[in-house]
Design a protein that fits this description.
It is a single chain. This protein is of the alpha/beta class and 219 residues long. It has a single domain (2-218), classed as P-loop containing nucleotide triphosphate hydrolases (Rossmann fold, 3-Layer(aba) Sandwich), CATH 3.40.50.300. 32% of the residues lie in helices and 27% in strands. It has helices at 40-47, 72-75, 93-104, 110-118, 120-124, 135-149, 165-177, 215-218, and strands at 2-11, 14-24, 29-33, 55-60, 63-64, 78-81, 153-157, 184-189, 201-206, 209-212. The strands form two sheets. Strands 6-7-8-3-9-10 form a six-stranded mixed β-sheet, sandwiched between helices. 38% of the residues are buried. One of its GO terms (molecular function) is branched-chain amino acid transmembrane transporter activity. InterPro entries: AAA+_ATPase, ABC_transporter-like_ATP-bd, ABC_transporter-like_CS, BCAA_Transport_ATP-bd_LivF, P-loop_NTPase. Belongs to the ABC transporter superfamily.
Length: 219
């Protein structure tokens, strides 16, 4: 499904990722664990085409992804929940969710209906302005937006960061339910607290380098 091979990337001449390699098989959930500043968000942004690579390749469904413009990700069925949510303040909840469909010219609202069934609470405040919601509720909206676009792959960057325990648990329930949809998912966290029960394998990132984590030993 997704493969990073020897990816290197610098920001303002500072090396952030160093020969990073990881792989996500179709229908699996993979964790990317590391402290703040370790390179998790940079890896996500590189996959999304928001940062240019200095070396290495990113393959998606056996095709080169690293040389495609960022906006092609939605067409490929890749959804992204950024750490800071990036909702449009004056849009309603539903308008924020539909942004990816507008970008691709897709008028089919079937996936929106599915998202409302998966997260009924989202449908209850669909007409409210996104910025009127709590931080945790905004995370759910950002997840809903990622789900509408992400029919093949989901990238979830620190989805539990800054969220009250009850809403973090709700987010985890929704992510757990996605296993039944055979979606491929990459979740970044600063530790192994929330995603432990749903991930199939875990990569640890430290100072821009990535390696498989021995989850049995970690447990």
């Amino acid at each position: 499904m997704l493969q990073l091979k020897n990816v290197s990337l610098s920001i303002q001449r500072t090396p952030i990722l160093r020969d990073v390699s990881l792989e996500i098989e179709t229908g699996t959930t993979v964790g990317l664990i590391g402290r703040n500043g370790a390179g998790k968000t940079t890896a996500m942004r590189a996959i999304m085409g928001l940062l240019p690579l200095q070396g290495g390749t990113i393959q998606f469904e056996h095709g080169a992804l690293h040389d495609k413009p960022a906006h092609h990700r939605a067409e490929l069925g890749i959804g992204y929940l950024p750490e800071d949510r990036r909702l449009v303040p004056h849009f309603t909840v539903e308008d924020n969710i539909l942004v990816s469909l507008w970008a691709t010219g897709n008028t089919d609202r079937t996936r929106l209906k599915w998202v409302y069934e998966l997260m009924p609470e989202i449908g209850r405040f669909a007409d409210r302005k996104a910025m009127s919601l709590s931080g945790g509720q905004q995370k759910l909206v950002a997840l809903a937006r990622a789900l509408v676009a992400g029919s093949n792959l989901l990238l979830l960057d620190e989805p539990f960061e800054g969220v009250a325990p009850a809403l973090a648990q709700r987010l985890m329930e929704v992510i757990g339910d996605l296993r039944q949809e055979h979606l491929s998912v990459l979740i970044s966290e600063s530790d192994y607290t929330h995603s432990e029960k749903v991930v199939d394998k875990v990569y640890a990132v430290e100072r821009g380098q990535v390696g498989l984590m021995d989850t049995k030993r970690a447990a």
